[in-house]
Design brief:
By secondary structure, the chain is an alpha/beta fold. The chain is built from 13 helices and 11 strands.
């Protein structure tokens, strides 16, 4: 393994003070709470920030609310992986001298809907004309299309999908802040309420309230902060489609492959160097796609890899160690929480039982939209 020079360093990281069901906080409140927690984590005040990035909230509104006058702004919004792209863009902006210290925020009232602007699809849009008119109701039904094709092609069963939830629930049990912590069996997952074939409710992401924030700076400044810095050593991003019906191959995500290959090339590492993995799990089949598209296993082998215990506690590739969006928390755009867990792992501050001993490299894979966008971030312990 030969690590390249870090692209940037994460010196501040925090989630909102509370996670779960928060009817007393608006989405702007959640952004601000997460931001102030991340700033406190690294000993900064809003006035120390000169770069800001966010998705879902208008960055101008957030900057005004926090009293920040940035010299660099990023409002990229490509769904749940937006925060992975923000990390990449912030690193580039810092290296280009456009700013010195960047705040990336997320806040979403996914459950309580306080201050939430509903996402609508105009009837004249491509999705409105060619997909939603045929009765799918957004993610829960649209994501079934690749899942069913994948299952048929590779012989993956409902039990295999249920096992993803079961293994990740084992990790969630170590996290006091996880929404679902109690152990669950494959039979219990399969007995839970049907949402859209083949997804039962325990195979689907949570709908909760919360947020998170990161603070990034140049690697050579990271030692000036009180926290243990986490280095960003590789990033990648890609977009394959807007409409899931235009996915080139329902058994694999081209966006995942492009973003992942780009990040690994930038980091100068091999898959065997990875100690920890976070794959956005909007639904139970997505980690299977991630394991394969990122090159950890061959096509069709991911379900067996999980069944053999390799991603579970004690396994050789611990994955989704906070329990994932299915068990830990999922406010709508989950990518920020995957990054938070990767930072905890690289700092060595994850809860007892969940912390991966001597972990040095973490890969975070995000997905956005209807399986159409992807962002990859590779982090390293300083």
């Amino acid at each position: 393994m030969s690590l390249t020079h870090p692209l940037a360093s994460i010196v501040g990281a925090a989630e909102t003070t509370r996670l779960g069901v928060l009817p007393d906080m608006s989405e702007l409140d959640l952004h601000a709470d997460a931001a102030l927690n991340a700033l406190a984590d690294c000993g900064l005040a809003p006035g120390d920030i000169d770069g800001i990035a966010t998705a879902g909230e208008n960055p101008a509104m957030l900057a005004q609310y926090l009293g920040i006058t940035p010299t660099w702004v990023d409002a990229t919004n490509i769904g749940g992986c937006s925060f992975m792209t923000h990390v990449a863009h912030a690193a580039a902006a810092i290296r280009a001298g456009l700013c010195r210290t960047v705040l990336i925020t997320h806040g979403e009232s996914g459950r309580s809907r306080v201050g939430h602007v509903p996402w609508t699809v105009p009837a004249h849009s491509l999705m409105g004309q060619f997909e939603l008119g045929y009765t799918p109701t957004m993610a829960a039904t649209l994501f079934t299309l690749p899942a069913l094709r994948y299952m048929k092609t590779f012989g993956v069963t409902e039990e295999d999908l249920a096992r993803v939830t079961v293994v990740q629930r084992q990790w969630a049990g170590f996290h006091p802040r996880a929404f679902r912590r109690d152990p669950v069996t494959v039979d219990e997952v399969l007995a839970s309420r049907m949402i859209a074939w083949p997804f039962r409710i325990l195979m689907c992401c949570l709908v909760t309230d919360g947020g998170g924030a990161l603070v990034l700076t140049a690697p050579d400044r990271a030692a000036d902060f009180p926290t243990r810095p986490v280095d960003v050593i590789g990033t990648g991003e890609s977009v394959e489609h807007l409409m899931i019906t235009e996915m080139k191959d329902y058994t694999s995500s081209r966006a995942f492959r492009v973003a992942g290959d780009q990040a690994f090339a930038a980091a100068g590492i091999d898959r065997a160097d990875v100690d920890h993995l976070m794959i956005y799990d909007a639904f139970a089949h997505v980690p299977l796609y991630g394991l394969e598209a990122l090159g950890f296993v061959k096509p069709g082998e991911a379900a067996g890899f999980i069944a053999d215990g390799h991603t579970a506690p004690g396994g050789r590739l611990p994955m989704n160690t906070n329990g994932g969006g299915i068990n830990y928390m999922h406010s709508g755009m989950y990518g920020m929480y995957a990054l938070q867990e990767a930072v905890r792992q690289m700092r060595g501050t994850a809860p007892e039982g969940a912390q991966i001993r001597d972990a040095r490299i973490s890969v975070v894979q995000g997905v956005g939209g209807m399986f159409g966008t992807a962002g990859t971030v590779i982090l390293a312990r300083r």
